[in-house]
Amino acid sequence: MILHLTVNGKNVETQISPEQTLLSVIRGNLKMTGTKIGCMVGECGACTVILNGKAVKSCVVNAAQCEGMEVRTVEGLANGEELHPLQQAFIDHNAVQCGYCTSGFLMTAVAFLEQNPNPSRDEIKKAISGNLCRCTGYIQIEEAIEGYIAERDKPKEVPDNETKENAAEETVEAAAS
Question: Which residue segment(s) compose the domain that 18 sits in?
């Protein structure tokens, strides 16, 4: 059967078998290997993707049931060479060691933060509790998510020279009118 999906904003069409999981379609058919194979029973979270706005463990999602749906994978977070700010926060807070679980944590956190943009530490802990990490522990991951939120919410500073240039331009425009 043919499966139609929107993956990271692009329409895709691929031949699948009825028993195929979304994970096997992403990794095998679409050759997107950022989504990891872990436990294959929905326990570890390494395979987490965002399906129609909700974080799901793709190893237990039947691909045929995803007809016409939107899938976001870790490959869709970065903007070209520029990392998503949450990816950068994981690096800045040493929340990445071996990296195997990282894509699952990132996708879980992105989906969670889209629903709850200003969570408490306890809400963050609960949100990521379905993802396992055997290297970093969870404190650095929690700190990375909090660091991302703090950076996202920080007022944008305008350099003094830019403010002065804009003020000068406005004065010239006002004088010309």
Answer: 2-153
Q: Is residue 176 part of a domain?
A: no
Q: Which residues, in sequence order, are CB contacts of 168 under 8 Å at separation 6+?
A: none
User: pTM here?
Assistant: 0.86
Count of structural domains, the chain = 1
Amino acid identity of residue 25, one-letter, is: V
Residues 6+ apart with CB under 8 A from 159: none
73 CA to centre of own chain: 7
pLDDT tens-place string over residues 110-156: 999 999 999 999 999 999 999 999 887 799 999 999 999 999 998 88
Torsions phi, psi of 176, nearest 5? -75, -20
CATH of the domain at 56: 3.10.20.30
